[in-house]
Amino acid sequence: NAIGGEWPGTAQAETVTNGYGETQFICYVPEGAVGVILSNGNGAQTEDITDFSYDGYWMDGTKNDLGHYKVTGYYEDEPITDETQPISHTISNESFKLTDNFGWGSAYVYAWDADGNAIGGEWPGTAQAETVTNGYGETQFICYVPEGAVGVILNNGNGAQTEDITDFSYDGYWMDGTKNDLGHYKVTGYYEDEPITDETQPISHTISNESFKLTDNFGWGSAYVYAWDADGNAIGGEWPGTAQAETVTNGYGETQFICYVPEGAVGVILNNGNGAQTEDITDFSYDGYWMDGTKNDLGHYKVTGYYEDEPITDETQPISHTISNESFKLTDNFGWGSAYVYAWDADGNAIGGEWPGTAQAETTTNEYGETQFICHVPEGAVGVILSNGNGAQTEDITDFTHAGYWMDGSKNDLGHFLVTAWD
Predict the structure, then answer these.
(1) Which of 12, 85, 162, 242 is deepest in the core (most CB within 10 A)?
(2) Residues 74, 56 contacting (CB under 8 angstroms)
């Protein structure tokens, strides 16, 4: 019988960082359990683990016949040798940086030797944990080349990848958005002591001073600018365009992306790189834009421009800010990572935008190290549904008098999480 909720089980919130800069999850075994499976809640999982005597486990990338990651146990006071240390740590001093100017958010190195054999695990290879930030505010992954490798492919572990890289002499690489015939990102190498010119700097840095803010009130988490010139040609790379790395936080605790307009652009589309996008924006005179959840006939978010020195009224402020003081906490014990409030009034009309509603930006951490979302109830709402914006949702909640809610993993006939109130 399952203990601690149905699949994927209970999210583990506590982490530490080991001596290699890698994240380690502290995984708790429920009382009475005889076996566990560790997973990321999104398809990847380990084989069954029934021996809880080890201090930890690591994965070398090999999998069993079911496609589940094999694990190796270790003791923290055991001397580390070539045989006992994780393969991902058996690396050369050879490394280079990958500028994450397309907002991958993660990077893996898949490597092979002179005989074409994989080194460091099967695809997608070994995750790279070390990052730095360049002068443009962009993340750069420190990518290590395993001993004996003659070529590597860098990828995000989720479908996007570079072409083969066989020259490890550069200090780093960046992607301008162009791809080869296989649909793999082409890369350009650079040396850090080389003077940067219009020809050598990444195209994403060749921008005007023209910029505006996009309020992330629907929890995109990332923003790209796709731009075109007067002839309809893309500027700054093909779709989804160039990732925007700079953010600020407004007075409501919401993230705002600083979106730069490339030189010569006559229009841009803002998007999250994963299907959601705005309508065309051709007026760059505003200080910023926000989305109220309505969409045009193409299913693209409509935007409203604003000026920062304009007095905020009920008519000009974003609908997501027209909220009551009514709020409660949702314990994120299933690792949603984001929370939306979809609300409706007494006539069944949506308040605060169409599904999935308004992203909730405020969080706290409870005594168990779990994230709790502060969920605000819009004025006039008689019911809300909480969701992660990606398929998981609660049952209807119509009682806003409690301090918070949590989910034990049970669901109703519609497959929606049942919630339990607490005070």
Answers:
(1) 242
(2) yes
